[in-house]
Amino acid sequence: MRVKLYGLSTCPYCRMTKKYLASNDVEFDLLEVDLLEGQEREDAIATVKEISGGKSFPVVVIGDEVIVGFNKVRIKELLSL
Amino acid sequence: MTERPQRQMFEPGTTIDDLKEYMAPFVARLGYKFNTETEFVDEVLESELEILADTGDIYCPCRVRSGDPKEDAKIVCPCIPFFRDEFAGLRKCWCGLFILAGVEDGGELLGVMDEPDGDVDVPVFLASDVPEGQIRHVKVGKTSIAVAHAPDGFYALSNVCRHAFGPLGEGFMDGCHVMCPWHGWRYDVRDGTTDHPNADVRTYPTTERDGVVFVKMRISAKR
Ligand code: SF4
Ligand code: FES
To answer: Domain locations in chain B?
Structure first.
């Protein structure tokens, strides 16, 4: 299952999420929104807003599911870890 | 981005301890304290110092700036007044830097992001901050309430007078009644009733615990 992580380089939960996924050998695409600039940044913020309803991070997309925040339990469930 | 004046303490050289010293007494007045996970706290504050160096203010490390100063003022740390209902539901601020004053183990809350459905006890202020005979306007999520200190305790009611929308939280207390500051309509703060027909206002259950006043409300905020 494709896993995508929208994060901020400054956000402790994003770091925890990254660590958690990596320690479980889950491959994921990472987009650190605060490191983007200009149009790319705007687009990423718009995407996050659209899929999560807000501007809070991290946002983890697993298949069709969107998890806002570092929710270990949900991630575990969805990836059957 | 429009320039805002910088606070003097936020000059180069600001430390984690400076931030703690400045934030702790402020969040205490809102019914919060620093998370008991001290390493985590330092990690968040470290990020905030980096953001400060970058942007000139201590924006939330877990949310993204829009570029609109008015919008972004809501994510300058501590941001608790803008998200009272949501954070009361989580029992911590979004990042977990702050937890409700009554929570003993903040570590347990760190991975919890699910907000409960339904009613939540929202801390509004310290009982000692609003002496008897005073009333105060508080915004909880999108709802404006007025919290009164009547002779027999604290009561919360809608902030909006049914006459012409006067702000009851700026009104005058008279025993268990508040007089609207605009034209003097009187409401009983205990049940929201008034002598004017069909003009009663809504009230909310209010409690006091460990010196903090809580108002029971439905959470409505969106991040
Ligand atoms: S969510 Fe917490 S850390 Fe982030 S700005 Fe608000 S109070 Fe500060
Ligand atoms: S608006 Fe409250 S009395 Fe007129």
So the answer is: 16-113, 123-219
